[in-house]
Amino acid sequence: MILIPLKKFCQTTTDVTELISKLFNDVRQQKDLNDFKIAKEVKKGFGKALADSLILEPNFNGLGIDFKKIIEYFKK
Questions:
Q1: How many domains does the chain fold into?
Q2: Is residue 63 within 8 Å of 13, Cβ to Cβ?
């Protein structure tokens, strides 16, 4: 599961649409997610999440996420 705190980073519905569109286009093309970074990892377990999850947030530092590493994360 991948979560994105949209309210924290988007001011308008247009911002939300652009952010989601960019994310899905990059995933579809299997590109690295240069505009996002992992803000938090949550492992499933007692008292925690029902599934492993990543919380992504927009990245302003220019260092992104390797798409293949995300796939490997969820294959574990």
A1: 1
A2: no
Please say whether the beta carbons of 58 and 66 come within 8 A: no
Helix then strand then coil, % of the chain, to nearest 5:
40, 25, 35
d(CA 39, CA 14): 23
Q: What token pair was written down for 38?
A: 């992992």
* Structural domain containing residue 71: 2-75
- Is residue 66 within 8 A of residue 32, CB to CB? The reply is yes
Q: How far apart are CA 67 and CA 54, in angstroms?
A: 13
What is the radius of gyration, based on Cα positions, of the chain? 13
The tokens for 58 are 């927009």
Condensed to tens digits (0 to 9), the pLDDT of residues 13-41 reads 898 898 889 888 888 888 877 777 777 77
Which amino acid is it at 51? A
